[in-house]
Amino acid sequence: MAGPASLDVKNENTTVLPFAVVKLNPEVVQVLEKYEPNGLPGILADTRPPSSIKFGIGDIISVTIFEASAGGLYVPLEAGVRPGNYVNLPDQAVDNDGNITVPYAGRIRAAGRTNVQVQEDILQQIKKRAIDPQVVVTSSQQRSSLVSVFGEVRTPVRFPMPLAGAQDRITDAITRAGGISGAGWETWVVLERNGKRATVPFGNLVYFPSSNIFVQPGDRIYLYREPMKFIAFGATGQQGEFNFDAWRINLTQAVAKARGLLDLQADPASVFLYRREPREVAQRLGVDCSKFDGDSVPIVFNVNFQDPAGYFIATKLSMRPFDVLYAANAPQVDITKVLNFINTTLVTAESGVTLVNNIRFPGPTSSTTTITTIGP
């Protein structure tokens, strides 16, 4: 596959889409390592652990009321033989208005409040009528504060968040679903929260603990399988689309996956990596971003494999999904192509003359007539 010449890339000779060329060196690699693609914390601002879970509409609530002695508001005198002066009220669901009903306390607001807040509200309503009352409110069944995990997991699950806040992280939620069903390096995690969506590779959660954020009530976690790939063409041993087959690979490994550079064709000093970088990263790399629109800048990184240091630098540059790797032809290759074309043309012409000289036709005076070419 013919591609742009190395000089065209290095000189940024294009009028269709502007791009920047950045020579790969240790300083550039340091900038790229610092500005890793955004994980979940960079997309979803709320990474704090969940506070105490609040009741929602439809939750089933259990209320238990204790009194200091029998004969009070809730515990009759004959209950003195029981091992405790308390009464369990029938379980009830939080209604569409967000309330529950407690005898002698009336309608109590429950939706959007913690169990401690509901307990205190009930206590304030009955403390002047009951005998030194105490109130315990628990959740019998949660229907609002749920977390869903589905997709490429062994057992899709929908589980409630404990009232006290279990502080589960994303990987904990995935574990509740039996873990991922495929290879980690080709699994992606989508987190939906409060109308926002963030997508990261599964490995991002494992190797970057800051990305493994806490689960919040209402989170939907979807896992899907899509191998990470890059494209290689030009003077490489093999052109096409290649899977990473690992959580991460570096530029040197990518060249190896493409069967290396062609000995008689490639220019080792002109290996290029095409990708888009955020404007902030491009500015840190010294790119003049004034001629670029949008949040990202197309950049072509140039690595020189003719320099031994280039191999070490390339091992520090991590490939990203959909990167494009291009190895340019050496300048002498184009000259060789022209010479071969000229040589082929001359040989073809010479062969044609020889063929004409050897053709014989039947004549009237002899069995064959020889056509003789006249000319210098």
Q: What do you see in this structure?
A:
- The chain has three domains: 6-35 and 228-332, Outer membrane lipoprotein wza domain like (Outer membrane lipoprotein wza fold like, Roll), CATH 3.10.560; 40-50 and 145-225, Outer membrane lipoprotein wza domain like (Outer membrane lipoprotein wza fold like, Roll); 60-141, wza like domain (wza like fold), CATH 3.30.1950.
- Helices cover 24% and strands 27% of the residues.
- The chain is built from ten helices and 19 strands.
- It has helices spanning 6-10, 26-34, 40-43, 115-126, 170-176, 202-207, 251-257, 279-284, 308-314, 331-357; strands spanning 20-23, 60-66, 86-88, 92-93, 99-102, 106-109, 134-141, 146-151, 157-160, 187-193, 196-201, 220-225, 229-234, 240-243, 266-278, 296-303, 324-329, 360-361, 369-370.
- The model is unreliable at 365-376 (pLDDT under 50).
- Overall spatial form: elongated
What top-tier CATH class of the largest domain fits best? Alpha Beta
Q: What's the helix count?
A: 10
Mean pLDDT: 84
The beta-strand count equals 19
Main β-sheet: number of strands, strand sense, barrel status? Answer: 6 strands, mixed
State which percent range the strand residues make up: 25-35%
Distance between the termini: 44 Å
- CATH homologous superfamily designation of the largest domain: Outer membrane lipoprotein wza domain like
- Number of self-contained structural domains: 3
- At CATH level 3, the topology of the largest domain is Outer membrane lipoprotein wza fold like
Low-confidence blocks of residues = 365-376
String of helices and strands: HEHHEEEEEHEEEHEEHEEEHEHEHEHEE
Radius of gyration: 37 Å
SSE class: alpha+beta
**Helix proportion of residues, in percent?**
10-25%
The CATH architecture of the largest domain? Roll
If strands are numbered along the chain, what order do they take across the biggest sheet?
1-16-15-17-13-14
